[in-house]
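Lab notebook, bench 4. Still working through the backlog of constructs that have no structural model yet. Next entry is a single chain of 169 residues. Request: give me the structure tokens for it.
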Amino acid sequence: MKNGKKVLKYVITDKKDSGLQGDDVRGNAFNKIAHGAMLGKNINHFEGWLKERLTGLNKVYYLHTKYLLVDPLGVAPLVVSGSANFSENSVDNNDENMLVIRGDRRTAEIYFGEFMRLFRHFYFRSVESDFDSGENRSRMFLHTDDAWAREYYNPESPKCAERLYFSSK
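Model written out:
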């Protein structure tokens, strides 16, 4: 929450069990989380898809991008990006860095566009992974009536917050 207002957060993690398990993160409906993953081994419900495979080039399987965006579509966005992992080794021993860019709306929008591209890529895999494990299966199916739209107009719903944020009211 910020000033009593629920705030949307989009997070991409390198794996499902990344340590973001607490109710303040995973249990908060205003947090959308996607994790690095390949499509499941049993992808029969996605007929015609090629089996994904890793290249084996390094230990970081899915994602090595590091950036933080604060209100990237707002009037005073903040972008933090660079090579540092925020680990003790990264900060004390390696020649790693981070840039802090404040108020540059164009830069923030470019970073945000790339973030959402990656987020949607991995979010699809997160949903598919949940489907395979039997978790959150309801996310895979459409409503047969107009019930899906109600959440987008309920001020307590994360979908309403998304609609307002992305449509500029």
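Notes after review: The helical segments are 88-92, 105-133, 158-167. Residues 9-167 form a domain with the Endonuclease; Chain A fold (CATH 3.30.870). Flag for follow-up if needed.
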